[in-house]
Design goal:
The chain is 37% helix and 20% strand. The protein has 180 residues and is an alpha/beta fold. The strands form two sheets. It has a five-stranded mixed sheet with strand order 3-1-4-6-5. A two-stranded antiparallel sheet has the order 2-7.
Length: 180
């Protein structure tokens, strides 16, 4: 039986650390390929507009900035019924939308059986395009943990390699190296 899985990056790219979830899924979508039953989505700040994506979903992995209780850059894993509780102390307006999204999905008879949230404590949520140093340094770790969660669910990813040079290009490059 093939289980449908959604990897959902949440956040606002123009609000510094709030964009971490979106940055993670952007990198994953660029650098990895997955089986067809896995969808990688930049959910941005869409909130309830994401409701159709949850219908018939078996597993949901959310990546977002959240209050972890630790210093900036602290990563926390939350699962199941703890996810709405994690958004009680919201850091940005979209987090209430995500909490509402999960509640409405359940009320409409589409609860997601298995959910995991990977969150990172932001240092700064204010207008700006760059992640703070404390959060930027965790980007690769969040990608790694996202892939680990998928692997735990039996989902393998394949690293996308840059297009290989054609034989002709390789020969031409080699001939240039030999010339004085």
């Amino acid at each position: 039986m093939i289980l449908s899985t959604l990897v959902l990056g949440i956040g606002n790219l123009i609000m510094t650390d709030d964009g971490i979830g979106v940055r993670v899924v952007q990198r994953i979508a660029e650098e990895y390929s997955f089986p067809p039953e896995v969808e990688i989505i930049d959910g941005g700040t869409l909130g309830l507009d994401l409701l159709p994506l949850l219908e018939g979903l078996d597993r949901l992995l959310i990546i977002d900035a959240m209050g972890t209780g630790g210093p900036p850059g602290t990563i926390r894993r939350v699962d199941g019924e703890e996810i709405p509780i994690a958004f009680e102390s919201r850091l940005s307006p979209h987090q209430m939308g995500l909490k509402d999204l999960l509640a409405v999905s359940r009320l409409m008879g589409h609860p997601v059986p298995e959910m995991v949230l990977l969150g990172v404590q932001p240092e700064c949520i204010e207008p700006g395009m760059e992640l703070s140093p404390a959060v930027a340094v965790q980007l690769d770790e969040l990608i790694s943990r996202t892939l680990q969660e998928l692997n735990r669910w039996g989902i393998c990813s394949e690293r996308i390699t840059p297009a290989r040079q054609t034989t002709q290009q390789q020969g031409y490059a080699a001939s240039l190296e030999r010339k004085p």
